[in-house]
User: What shape does this take?
Amino acid sequence: MIQQRKSPNAPASLAGRRTWNGKDVQEALYADQDGKCYLCESCTEQYYQIDHLRSRKNYPEKTYDWANLFLCCSYCNGRKSDGFDDIVSPCDVPCEEIFDIDLKPGCKAVEISVRRADVPGAERTRELLHRLHNGKSAGMRDFRENLFYKKLRGAVLDFACCLKEYKNHGTPENRAKVAELLKIGKPFLAAKMSLLRDCPALLEDFRQETIWNRSQTEG
Ligand SMILES: [Zn+2]
Assistant: This one.
């Protein structure tokens, strides 16, 4: 999960308060979120849905509220449902600074930890991210949860390889390969950020590449 940006003007179709998933809403969310699910950071392509950050069931007044709508993959939307109304507000806080998403070698569980417990909703968000990354209990992932885990693990291992190459041979080519995987449209940036944090010198080298969507809260 990384911080999200949202176009300041709500799509016109929301004004009628009859539908929240008009074509203009879908297109605006897709552009704002670089085609990725705001929760798991998978590229959504065909499989996106529109999630109400605060659920329709518990916050009916926010049903057509532009600030409450996010692009989400069907995998995450189904698991979040209306049981996680109290997670962090993704446009307001630098999510990638609040959580670590660690895939320990040889360990099948993905470790989700809170780095900034002072942020409202952080612990509840950790619970949701844990659910998305590990299923109901680690090692007991269902078929779809396992597919997601394999996709995440593959991307993180690829990134770790590129990072190691760059660490051993800091050539411009190796640097460019790492930078490419840190572009905002690429999946799983928060997990990549967690890997970078393990090595402060590398984090410093890629500081510019790891400032995503921060202009709204800076200055
Ligand atoms: Zn997702």
